[in-house]
Design goal:
217 residues, alpha/beta, six-stranded mixed β-sheet, two-stranded antiparallel sheet, 7 helices, 10 strands, 40% helix, globular
Length: 217
């Protein structure tokens, strides 16, 4: 079932061009990392077909992996809409976590009602090095929540991200991942087989830029 969801979501992201694959002209992330892939999950919201698939998959993943969940919390800003839609489907309360506390009003970092001890699942759009979602989890824990884990739409599966999540004792379940997207993209002719090797080389060691160059979609 999970493998079917991974493929369906990967196909959907590729079909709406939410995944950009550009080995010859890499993207630069905020961290400075040069990447042959960029995943813009915000485009899901403007594509009703794949949006239905993704939100249903988030809801089903919460029910399957975190059946005790009492509240969904989205990460600001990209996880907010997905958390809201999935929470509506599950009939659960929903809120979101800012990257930092506001400097005005009630100076909240967590928006929405959250009671100490409530069991929370965090909804994130994608995970690379894991820093932002760990920050959200730590803010929720500091507020007294019991964070059961994370549901993310896409993960790169980077070693640094996996190690950081493990060290912070954060469990993540992703709807799809880089391996699945790369495999489906090659099968469907979005990229060449050599480009899959570049994607895997990037994931194995983002600091080694020897993969740069070659064809793209």
């Amino acid at each position: 079932m999970q493998d079917t969801i991974k493929r369906q979501v990967a196909e959907g992201l590729l079909s709406i061009r939410a995944v950009f694959l550009r080995p010859e002209e890499p993207f630069t992330w905020a961290s400075g990392i040069k990447s042959p892939i960029y995943c813009d999950n915000r485009l899901i919201l403007t594509a009703p077909g794949i949006r239905d698939t993704v939100e249903a998959a988030i809801a089903e993943t919460v029910k399957r992996e975190y059946p005790a969940a009492e509240v969904l919390m989205g990460t600001a800003t990209a996880g907010i809409a997905h958390a809201a839609i999935a929470a509506h489907m599950l009939r659960l309360p929903m809120g979101y976590v800012r990257s930092g506390a506001k400097d005005h009003g009630r100076k909240n970092q967590i928006e929405g009602r959250l009671e100490p001890g409530q069991k929370v699942v965090v909804v994130e759009d994608l995970i690379s090095t894991g820093g932002s979602v760990i920050d959200a989890v730590e803010a929720l824990r500091a507020a007294g929540a019991e964070v059961l884990g994370v549901v993310s739409i896409f993960t790169y599966g980077m070693k640094k991200g996996l190690e950081r999540l493990d060290a912070a004792k954060v469990r993540n379940v992703s709807l799809t991942d880089l391996d699945t997207v790369a495999s489906v993209a090659a099968e469907q002719g979005y990229i060449q087989s050599g480009d899959v090797e570049k994607l895997m080389a990037f994931r194995a060691d983002p600091s080694d830029e020897s993969w740069i160059g070659g064809s793209a979609i």
